[in-house]
Amino acid sequence: MFLGGRGKNAKDISENLGRETIDSFNTSENRGTQVSHGLNYQKLGKELMTQDEIAVMDGGKCILQLRGVRPFFSDKYDITQHPNYKYLSDFDKKNAFDVERYMSTRPAIVKPDEPFDIYEIDLSDEDAAAE
Question: What GO cellular-component annotations does this UniProt entry give (predicted)?
Answer without folding.
Answer: membrane
